[in-house]
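User: Can you recover a sequence for this backbone? Please restate the input before giving your answer.

Assistant: Of course. Working from this structure:
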């Protein structure tokens, strides 16, 4: 596939539908267990109610905000270390625009909301995989 075709892909084409979903009251230990169980790099933190925003917990945040500070993962609540609010993208947003959002806000992940429901997670790794997967090996 030519680069132009790659760049016509949309968020829904590369988003990951496999993610851990945890509550803000879960412990970091519980979130890590959920992430490992689904082989995920992130846990999406559910909203407390419909007016709330989603949050995210990544392995990087766990290293920076839990391990580096010697906090106990079994007693530290996800709500205390998560990133919130998240950038939300529409499933029809083209990948170059997703990448521009990532660059502008210095983020690695965004959630995809479709019909008012959490549909998936898109990461910078997903964007890079989409770029490399759509080319012939000789083109790299």
């Amino acid at each position: 596939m030519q680069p132009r075709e790659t760049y016509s892909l949309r968020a829904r084409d590369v988003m990951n539908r496999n993610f851990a979903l945890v509550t803000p009251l879960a412990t970091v230990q519980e979130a890590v267990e959920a992430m490992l169980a689904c082989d995920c790099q992130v846990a999406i933190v559910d909203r407390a109610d419909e007016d709330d925003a989603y949050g995210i917990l990544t392995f990087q945040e766990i290293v920076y905000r839990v391990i580096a500070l010697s906090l106990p993962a079994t007693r530290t609540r996800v709500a205390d270390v998560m990133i919130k609010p998240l950038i939300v993208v529409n499933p029809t947003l083209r990948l170059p625009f997703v990448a521009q959002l990532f660059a502008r806000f210095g983020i690695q992940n965004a959630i995809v909301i479709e019909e008012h429901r959490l549909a998936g997670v898109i990461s910078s790794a997903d964007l890079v995989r989409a770029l490399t997967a759509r080319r012939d090996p000789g083109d790299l």
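That completes the design. The chain has one domain: 3-139.
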